[in-house]
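In response to reviewer comment 3 from the previous cycle, which asked for concrete evidence that the modeling workflow produces usable outputs, we include below a single protein chain processed end to end. The sequence was submitted unchanged, and the resulting C-alpha cells are shown without manual editing.
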Amino acid sequence: MERIEKLFPRFDASGHELIKKAYDIAEEALKEHSRSNGHAFIEHPIAVAKIADEEIGLSAECIAAVFLHEATRFHPETDIKGFGQDVYTIVDGLNKISTINPRDTRLEAENYKKLIVSYSRDPRVTVLKIADRLEVMRSLEIFPKASRERKVLETMMLYIPLAHQLGLYNIKSELEDIYFRYADPEQYRSITNKLKSTERDRQKLMTQFIEPLKQKLSDEGINYKLKVRTKTALSIYKKMQKQKVGFEGVFDVFAIRFIIDCEEDKAIEHALCWKVFSYVTEEYESDTKRLRDWISNPKPNGYESLHITVKNREGSYLEVQIRTKRMDDMAESGLASHWSYKGIRHEATLDKWLTAVRKALESPIGSDKDPMAAYYEDEVHEIPTKEVFVFTPAGELRKLQAGATVLDFAFDIHTNLGVKCTGGKINGKAVRINEKLKTGDVVEIMSGKNQKPSSDWLNIVVTTKARNKIRQKLSEVEFQKAADGKEMLGRRLKNWKMELEDETMAAMLKKLQFKTVNAFYAAIGKEELDVAEVKNMILEITQGVQEQQAEQEKKPVRTVVQEKGNDDILVIDAKNVRGIDYRMAKCCNPVFGDDVFGFVTRTEGIKIHRMSCPNAARLMDMYPYRIQKVRWSSNPSSGNFQTGLRVTAALEPSVVNEIMDIVNSFRASLRMFNVTENDRQGTYEITMKIAVPSNLELDKVTSQIRNLKNVLKISRI
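The workflow returned the following C-alpha cells.
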C-alpha cells in the first residue's frame, strides 16, 4: 500500500485500496513479461496510470482499469467483476481497442477512429487509450525500427486527431512534437535550435513589455504571473510552409500571457481581466481587428481568455493573452479537467461534457458538427510529413512520398501494373490516375491491356520509382540518340582540337534550356541541334569566362566585417573562408546559403555551424554566451565550399559513373569519392566530398542524383 500511496498521492484511502487491488492483480499477471528494453512490463501500466492521474486528472476507477487492462490482455481469464460495472466497461473497451491493427484491416483512418469510438461506450476509454499512446511515444526509442515506424504512423493517423477532439491540448502538442521529431528530424532539429538561440530575445521582449505596466498593476493590487507561450516546432513549420517563409518570417512565434491570481468568482475574474486589458491597450497601440473576447462569450468547451495583438516600442507586433489562473488551468488541461474533482461525475457539468465528447468523437475532424472545433487558439494543423501511408485492398500498408497519386501507387505495387494503369478506386470510389492519395486511403488499381505510358505521366507522378520506370519505357530511343549524339560531338571536338569543360557544358545547358546532359546529346543525335552551332557556343562561353576571371582578379578580396546594431552580427564572405577569423565546422560542413550560427572556440577562432548541425543543440545549451549571430555576404559564385554526401545505391556498376557525371555537369568538383559494397543489403555505400559555390548548386546536384533509378537514399554528412 505504501508504494501505491507514494505513486498516487492525490487519492483518499478508498481510492488507494481500489488501485492497490488492481495493481496486485497486474503485478502477478505480468511477472513473466518484459518490454523491448528488458525492463519489467509492469513499468508500462504504472507510467500510463500516472499520466491519467497527474496530467489528465482521472478517477481512481480509471487508474485501476489501466492495470486490469494489461492483466486481462495477457490473461483473459482474469476475474475483474468485483471492481464494479464502470471499471469492467472501461477495461472491456481498452481490450477491444488493443485488437485494432492497421496492418490487418482495410478501413481508412476515419473508420479506424470510428472503430475506436464504437468500443468506447464510456468516453474515458478513449482518453485512457490516448494516455497509453503518450507513454508509448515517450518510450519510442526502446522499440525495434519497424515497430517504431508503425507506432509513429498510428499516432499520426489516430491518436493526434482524437486528442484534438477531446480537448487534450498538452497531450496533443506533445504527441505532435514527438511525431515531428521522428518524421522529419532535420527540420525538427533546425527549428528547435533556432528557438533555443532566440529564447533570450523573447525573454528580453517580455521584460521590456511589462516594464511600463508594473507600477499601474502594482497600484491596483493585481497579482499576476507572466509566461511566454511559444508555438511548437510543428506549428512553426506549418506556418513556414503555408506562408512560404523562413523561420524569421513567422511573426507569431510566441505570445505573452498574463495569468492573474484571484478568487474563483466570475464577476471578479472578468473585471480584473478587462482592467489588465485596458492598461495594456493604453500603453501600446492595439489592433482591434485581432481582439478575441472569449471571456464574455466562452467557447463551447468552456475556454475563457482575452486575446489582443499590440505593437511594441520597436514596432514589432506581439500577441497578448489575458486570463485568470482558473481559466489557464482549464485551457492547459482541456475539458478532461472536470474529472479532477471528487464527486463531479454526478453534476450536470460532467453530463454535458460527456455528451459533447460523444458528439465530437462521432463527427469528422474539423466539420461544422465538431463541438470541440473552437477549443484551440491555433487552427488544426495537417501533419507535415514527407510520406503518406495507404492500404491495398488486402490490407497491406504501403508508404509513398507525399503528393503521390494513383499512378505512383500502381508502380509501387509492380512496374507492369503501373504501365497498364488506367485508373483506380479510392475507398470504393472510382478515380483517375492523377488523383492524389491521403494517409489511410484504401487503393485498388484498374488496368487495361492496351494502355501505354505517355510523356504526360511524368507530370502526374512524384515518386522516384514511378518516374524512373516511365522514363525507362519512354527513353529507350532517347538514350540511343543521346549515345549517337555524344559520339558525333566527341568526334568533331577531336577534329577541332577542342575540349568541352564541365563549366562550359553547364553554361551551355542553361543557355539552351536543356535539363539534362542526355537531352543535350539526344538533340544532337536527332539533328535538332547543329554541331557547328555547338562549336560557336563553346568558343563564346570560353571567351566570356576568361574575361570574367580577368575582371575578378582586379577586385579586392572581401574580409569579415561586423554590423553594429543591438547585437553584433558576423558577416562572412563566400571567399577566403579559411581566414584566421573564422572557419567552417567539419562536423556539418556548412555551404554558402545554409542557415548558420557561429561558435567562439578557445583556440581556433569562430567556427561556423549549420543550424541543423547535430552538435547545435548541445553548444547552445551549454555555451549560450559563446554563440555568435552570423549571416552570409557576397556573391556565391565567388566561393568554394567543401561538403560531404552519403549515397546508398543498388549494386549496379553504372550508377557510380552516373553519379560522377552528374557532379561534373554542375558547378561542383569531386574532392573525394569512396565506394563500399554491402553484399548483405545488396547496395553500394558511397561517400564523397564535393566543392560547390552555394547550397543552391548543392541542391541541384543532390536532386539529380536522387532521381537516378538505382539511387535509394542520399543525405549530407
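The chain has six domains: 2-168, 187-333, 387-474, 476-554, 561-637, 640-716. We consider this sufficient to address the reviewer's concern, and the full set will be provided in the supplementary archive.
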